[in-house]
């Protein structure tokens, strides 16, 4: 048995899928909703390397300096 994830782009497709499920040709499996109560900063901690973080800080500092220039 194979499992697919699909994105419905046409409202009529939902009806078609329901009909196929009624004929027991496929089964609709809902993806469980996860309620991650952690803060975003906690969830993303460690997602980039310290080197990447430092590079991002440098680029941010450079862009701030550019914005502060008088034209």
How would you explain this protein's 3D organization?
With 71 residues, the protein is mainly α. It has three helices and no strands.
How many DSSP E strands? 0
Uncertain spans: none
Our Rg estimate from Cα atoms comes to 24 Å
Helix content: 40-55%
- Give the termini distance in whole angstroms: 64 Å
| Secondary-structure element string | HHH
Q: Proportion of β residues?
A: under 5%
Please state the overall shape, judged from the principal axes of the Cα atoms.
Answer: elongated
Number of helices: 3
Main sheet overview = none
Q: Give the class from helix and strand content and strand pairing.
A: mainly alpha
Provide mean pLDDT, rounded: 88
Tell me briefly what this model is.
By secondary structure, the chain is mainly alpha-helical. It has three helices and no strands. The chain has helices at residues 11-22, 40-44, 50-68.
């Amino acid at each position: 048995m194979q499992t697919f994830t699909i994105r419905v782009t046409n409202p009529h497709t939902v009806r078609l899928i329901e009909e196929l499920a009624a004929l027991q040709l496929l089964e609709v499996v809902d993806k469980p909703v996860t309620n991650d109560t952690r803060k975003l900063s906690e969830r993303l901690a460690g997602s980039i390397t310290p080197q990447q973080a430092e590079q991002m800080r440098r680029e941010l500092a450079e862009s701030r300096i550019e914005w502060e220039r008088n034209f």
